Amino acid sequence: MNKWMTAWLVCAVLGLFSSFARADEPPLTFIVTSDSHYEAIEKLERNDRNRVTLQRMNDIEGVNWPEKLGGGPIGKPRGVLALGDLIDDGDRAGETEIQWRHFEEQFGLDGTDGVLKYPVFEGWGNHDGPPEQFIKQRRSVQAEIKRRNLARLEKKLISRVSENGLHYSWDWQGVHFVQTNLYPADKQNAQVRYSLPWHDPQLALQFLKDDLQASVGDSGRPVIIVAHCGFDTDWWVADDWKAFYDAVKPYNVIAFFHGHTGTGVRRWAPEGETQPPLDVINTGQTEKGFFVVEIGAERMRLGYQVKQDPRVIENPDWDWKFLFEKPIKRPQEK
Fold this sequence. Notes:
- The structure is a single chain.
- The chain is α/β, with parallel strands linked by helices and 334 residues long.
- It has a single domain (3-327), classed as Purple Acid Phosphatase, chain A, domain 2 (4-Layer Sandwich).
- It contains 6 helices and 13 strands.
- A hairpin with a 6-residue loop joins strand 4 (160-161) and strand 5 (168-172).
- The protein is globular.
- The chain starts with a helix and ends in a 7-residue tail after the last strand.
């Protein structure tokens, strides 16, 4: 039995107690961002703008939701999901290690060791470098994610990790989350020849299928899936999008979050599909803002906290954009 399976068995038992939301719990609140693109030599102001955003995340509890979404104070976030392109140069001598150090110093891991005061759940993107065996310099972001996933398991922040140590899942208040990293496919489509091995998703879809079957099954529990790329990415092509949709269609997927391109909310399903489309949230760049998400007993609401001027470092003004809410279904507690 390998280290990932041993750790998962321990956490899976504990996870049974968090499979369903309790009626007396407050709504689940969390934050989603992407594309922090930490720099080492040029454009260092981006690192400062990221820090300002993280400080806003730290202070978000108690800020009021927009009246359009019902108002009321934002609850304490359980964590922050960081959806890839953590750094800007994933395999550049003299820069990658510095950029990764900036990411760790600001985002930390568990809410006690960085600027950010909440646990972070990151995945890698296309800027973050190839698998560790192809790295040409000292630091591998994917190796660091594997190391951090072991730490997350030990701290009981997550409950299941793929055999390759990269993809993972966890539960918050009856909602199941799956981090699929670059994009949820198993390998780059044969139609595409784009910058391998950097764009190898490394069996993310197989992990997603196995995890949903084992962790959710026919329970009807809400599911959130996150990745770096969305349905507008040309190396994750339409055939793969459909394979992903078909894999998750039996489950109660209430949202798919991704980064990589612009910011906004849309719905998507394969052409000709008769089942409901997925609600898709494109989370934008950390230096500009972040999404706040709340999931209650019967509703999900979310909005984008955005700087009116991202160039401002001292006390920027913040606003709301891309407001969205919808009813959700939860299973009855057994």
